[in-house]
């Protein structure tokens, strides 16, 4: 019976294989997303970007399109 079942479900093997691959990729993506090192790096990048935006606003070198009065 196992041989018959294997033969009948053989066309679904690529789908089962793809399911396994998708699960592995999802698990790896979640591990990278919730990795404390990555979170810290992203927070530092956001902090640098916010500091740069604040310093641009204070120095008046912001977006030049804002000053266009056309």
Structural class by SSE content: mainly alpha
Radius of gyration: 26 Å
Number of helices: 3
Largest sheet, strands/sense/barrel: none
List the uncertain runs. Answer: none
> What spatial form do the alpha-carbon principal axes imply?
rod-shaped
Number of strands: 0
Which quaternary structure do these chains form? single chain
Report the mean per-residue pLDDT as an integer. 87
Residues in helices, as a percent range: over 70%
Order of helices and strands: HHH
Distance between the termini: 80 Å
Topology:
Elements: H1 2-9, H2 13-33, H3 36-59
Quick structural overview:
By secondary structure, this protein is an all-alpha fold.
Task: Provide keyphrases for this structure.
70 residues, single chain, mainly alpha, 0% strand
What does this protein structure show overall?
The chain is an all-alpha fold. It has a domain at 13-52. It contains 3 helices and no strands. The chain has helices spanning 2-9, 13-33, 36-59. The longest helix has 24 residues, at 36-59. The mean pLDDT is 87.
């Amino acid at each position: 019976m196992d041989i018959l079942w294997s033969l009948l479900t053989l066309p679904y093997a690529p789908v089962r294989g793809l399911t396994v691959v998708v699960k592995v990729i999802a698990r790896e993506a979640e591990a990278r997303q919730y990795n404390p090192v990555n979170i810290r790096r992203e927070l530092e990048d956001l902090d640098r970007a916010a500091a740069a935006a604040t310093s641009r606003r204070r120095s008046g070198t912001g977006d030049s399109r804002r000053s266009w009065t056309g």
